[in-house]
Amino acid sequence: MFRAPLRLLAPAALLALAACAPAPIYKVAPTTLTVPPQQVAETPERYSNAEVLWGGRIIKVDNYPDHSEIEVLAYPLDRSQRPLGAQPAGGRFLVVMPGYVERYDYPEGHFMTLVGRLNGTRAGKVGDHDYVFPLVQVGQSHVWTPEELQSRKPDVHFGIGIGVIKGWR
Fold first, then answer.
1. Is residue 107 within 8 Å of residue 79, measured between CB atoms?
2. Where does the record locate the signal sequence feature (predicted)?
């Protein structure tokens, strides 16, 4: 008697929870690479001029006369394309942006996601160690606010009782 409603309730509950996950911020082509920058740095010729979807933590911003570069420590992305900072890092890369980039808009320690095109590599240093940085010509970028990163968890609550909604007027 109760089996039929339960069979219908389980898929409906899963669908409701899936609907709570934010959508990806960028629509990307099926050919867009998601391999880690570390892998690209090892064999850059294999990935020449490919489009990438990468994200990570901003390490620093350097401004030059005609462009800016943002050094990023890469992390895997979730389904909403937010960097997963608790996962192991996947190398570093340099984001090349035209013109001047305000450091306040790309603060060190914040997370970002971008879509761009690989444009070779550059030798550099991380501390005292030699390092090869993949270069990404930015197409689009997004710096995540702490509030956006906290919204990782579905905002769905089940229970019995009285609830209070903060900020409700």
1. no
2. 1-23
DSSP 59-81: EEEEE-SSEEEEEEEE--B-TTS
Question: Smallest Cα–Cα separation from 26: which of 54, 58, 48, 68?
Answer: 54
* The two three-digit tokens of residue 49, written as one number: 């001029």
19 φ, ψ to 5°? -70, -20
**Paired tokens of 119:** 């444009």
Contacts of 26 (CB under 8 A, 6+ apart): 53, 81, 113, 115, 140, 142
C-alpha distances out from residue 163 to 17, 119, 120, 134, 158, Å: 20, 52, 54, 49, 11
Q: Which residues contact 90 (CB under 8 A, 6 or more apart)?
A: 36, 37, 38, 39, 56, 74, 75, 76
Q: Which two tokens stand for residue 136?
A: 């990404």
pLDDT tens digits, 139-161:
999 999 988 888 755 444 444 55
115 secondary structure, DSSP code:
E
Mean pLDDT of the chain: 84
User: Predicted confidence band at 28 (pLDDT cuts at 50, 70, 90)?
Assistant: confident
